[in-house]
Amino acid sequence: MDRLIELLPELNQAFFETLYMVGISLGIAIFVGLPLGILLYVTDRGLFLENRFVKVAAGIVTNLVRSIPFIILLVFLLPVTDALLGTTIGPTAAAVPLSVAAIPFFARIVETSAREIDQGVIEAAVSVGASPWMIIKDVILPEAKPGIISGVTITTISLIGFSAMAGTVGGGGIGDLAIRYGYYRYDDLIMYTTVIILIVLVQVIQYAGDFIARVVNKR
Asked: What InterPro entries does the entry give (predicted)?
């Protein structure tokens, strides 16, 4: 127990580093992935912005990034991270590959959520002359909101797992602490503590996400 108290400042720092890198990458994933997911949906066959070239090109890029295991993507993007930030160490640097991994992941969830919308609702909006922007803003996004919120929850939990992997290359956070103390120094107490922290964090996020999704679900 004394050992745990001694490392409490580092545990506290690692926890907030994890929240920091996950928060940045989640924000970027939503900012880029949400419009990308909507684009993948509305350019599909039979939709009001059907465009085969855009659909195929966006789908290929999305699937290409998603097909790369995160640990490989992490190493592959080290030169890009270094060029952007001047370093490959720390939670800010780790947020770069985390964001790249999260964008296509979240985009596909958004696309899937949009596909669950009753097509009759969209066809009715088109028939009354609603513009594409109005259909997206007033029909697709409100109808897909529960699925999108669930997608944010899933993406957040995935990012927590990815952030732990980022610790293996000096990304900071709980994963880094577990590797440095729990693995390299054979400190089982730190290893178990970091695992418990991650489990509790994931459970809280999952519960909160499910609750919000239920509240906004008007179906």
From this structure: AA_ABC_Transporter_Permease (IPR051322), MetI-like (IPR000515), MetI-like_sf (IPR035906)
CA 127, CA 120: separation in Å to the nearest integer? Answer: 10
> Domain ranges in the chain?
2-216
List the alpha helices (DSSP H) in the chain: 2-6, 8-42, 52-66, 70-76, 78-85, 91-115, 119-127, 132-135, 141-166, 173-177, 188-216
Report which of 99, 78, 92 is spatially closest to residue 32, judged by C-alpha positions: 99
Per-residue pLDDT of 102-125, as tens digits, reads 999 999 999 999 999 888 888 888
> What distance separates the 2 farthest-apart alpha carbons in the chain?
70
CA distance 126 to 145: 20
Q: Is the pLDDT of residue 150 over 90?
A: yes
